[in-house]
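#random but structural
TW: two for the price of one
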Amino acid sequence: MQRVAGLLLAGLVILATCSCTVQTVPVQPPAAAAGSFALYLQPLPQEIHLLHFSITGLVALREDGGEIPLTMTMDRIAGEDLVGIQKKLATAPLPPGVYQGLSLQVVDATLRGEEGDINLLAPEEALRLTYQFTIIKGEAKTLFLSLSPERLVTSGVLFSPKFALWEPERLLPSLKGFASNSGSDSLIIFNKRTAQTVGTLHVGANPKGMALDQRRGWLYVALARENAIAVVEVSNGVILGKVRLQFGDEPCELALSPSGSTLVAINQGSNTVSIIDAASLFEKGKIRLTAEPTGVFMGPEEGRAYVLQGSSGTISVVDLAGRKVVISKEVEEFPFKGAVNADGSLLYLISDFSAHLLVVDAASLSVIRKIFIGQGALSLKADHKTGLVYIGMQDGAIAVVDPRSALMLIDSFSLPAGVHHLAIDNEENALFAVLPQDGKLQKIDLVSKQPLGSLELENGGHAVAVMGER
């Protein structure tokens, strides 16, 4: 009996000793049980362009004293690369609850001088940034981190960074823009004037095309993998509801009638077109096509939509009231995207197999003119104010065409990567371009053709919509 007691006592001593050396490893919560958190480093001032440093040990501080590490998307801060540029610093799913702020460690600080880099003495202790925020299950929280340029380096070698943690102010609806990210199931909400992210919204599975009702203040988003269309309130980012389509429909692109009463969705999974009452969010009818639809657009005529089937080269006119195709015609160039001019008399089509912009008579669907733009067209936008057409190309070029007179492009300018989608802001006369390969949304002045800003997209950037677009 004494031997058993001795063994038990020895075991307890061993367990006690082991328990002193076991370290608790924070575990990220399952995404379904968490909220999403993102941290953006705000544009650095010019005074910091010679400074380099690294950030490690970035953690979220829970109200109960717990610490949760954040996955950093970048750790080395190079001043000259981030002057005037917003950059995502970290992202992570976080358990719901109240947080007291963040903690981070600054290391490897250097200052570039005339004779090379000068090593600086970074703070030995982690910096605690106090700012209370709340994570809610299924919702996204975005915070900004800014660095003050005041007295960053003292006594010649002491690096004394002063960070501030804060939440973006509520943005006026008229200043909002949205970018869909099909790979991350999210929308980026951004300030269209500053081209800076102010928040994210997890809208549903595989968001793709969007349609914006500016009068009602609703944004419609096609959710391909969810077989649904989400409706988002622009003013507050709340999802008002979803139009549930049939399994396998996979809606990819949307078009809204001029009055905002009818929404049209093309479904790449079922080769169909859905006609939806935009107010009640009810699918009124469905039209079956002969091939996969690749584009849909509408003009000023309320009851008429145009659908392109790229693989068969077919353009179809859909009667929305009668819920039927009234005319179809095959075009030898196999167009896959299109737009309509201001009065609805002409259609503009681009093709994978043609180096031309096709100008088509809307009544007969006959090609009446071909305008040379070069190979590799990906997207197009008809500017109803100027009559010009902008075509985004695979090589990053933006071709500018005046289809009323010219037989070739009248201007062009270049962006860093292929241009997947375009939108024009009427207020600033600025072009927004989605560049998925570059992971960027670019803003360009349409007069000077100079960049006005850019912001980072999530995985699979697809489309952009801005309030006040034309």
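TW: number two ↓
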Amino acid sequence: MKVWAAIILLACLAGASPAAAAGVEVKTYTLKNGVELLVLPDHRAPVVTHMVWYRVGSADEPEGLSGVAHFFEHLMFKRTKRLKDGEFSKIVAENGGQHNAFTSYDQTAYYQSIAADRLPLMMKLEADRMVNLNLKPKDIATERDVIIEERRMRVENNPSALIGEQMMAMLFMAHPYGTPVIGWKSEMEALSYDAVMDVYRQFYSPANAIVIIAGDVEPDAVRQLAEKTYGRNRGPKAEPRQRRAEPPALAARRVVMEDSRVRQPEWERVYLAPSYRAGESKHAPALSVLAQLLGGGPTSRLYRRLVVDDQTAADAGAYYSGTMYDLGQFGVYAMPAPDSDPARVRQSLAAAEASVDAALAELLQNGVEAAELERAKRRLRADEIYARDNLMTLAQAFGRALTAGLTIEDVLGWPDRIMAVTAEDVRAAAQAVLRPEGSVTGLLLPKAEATKP
């Protein structure tokens, strides 16, 4: 549910919206082997963020290999033909840097934040593991146990994550977005050395990579470094993404999960929605505004309705996942006050759902007011301005957008598209997306204790 969304978005960093990159200097290059290079100069401090994005996420995994995209987050830190096992991380640490990786539905990314004069070394290390990963069968067995344990801790021990998986699987009945990024346990257990290496050879290649460098650098110097490191790599051409299409949604779906571990009841509804690339993408900017208007803090419609006026929830909000290669999601949620009594929780969830339904019906019927529309747009614009100050957020904005099939122009033009949204645009987007047949509603509540005979 909403908590589960936070878990999977920790990997994909969906908070890095296209807004973060507006109004900044961008230099782009394409190397002869297909590597796309973006340089975002920022000379305020002698540091850089160096990111390598691959156009492979969980939605690109071969059938039956769920979890393999995320698996590479672990495997890419093993040995290469030049480095020993664990040496990559050791070198970054010894040079005062920080590094990590994340996976989402449409991308896998690796990054380092480090002093600017260490950038050549980081580029050399990343270029090496792009094509020279030297895995052994024993690595697969060892790291497979690690990711299975990770799933147990993050998902199977978390009722909110479990119902989130069920909801996504129901929302996307055919499309691979219905498969969890971390993978299904039964398929994770079966991941083999040969299958993993096939995925590496298919997706980890120069033509499938985007290198983004933000910080205290000169673009021409970075391009020359890229030619000397990434430019020497060879690999296959990038193949077009081929994914199963989602059929039309014809019926509202509902998931109710009872679990004795639940302390915080949750109600959430998620709708299939166009993204900035797929479906009726003309609605995407208005959906960004709608999410802010409905759920962007204590002045938003849902918060005022559920928390302040009706007092049917302790928290309420909305979100829009629109930076996706295929269809996105629009969600609304409510968190009633914690309660361990299942009967009272059912009543509070029903009351919260009724309040949400009333708020949405009012918006669909009457539209939005000019003042709240302007407030929502200004808030989005302010978030975009603040985001420019963070090198990582800036690099993420471009990387996430480009691996989701968008362009640099899409990223740079985002603020203007947001500010151009009208009240009628918001109402039209809401009418197009907030349809019961395109939704999955989830209720998470504590399980009643069995009565002893």
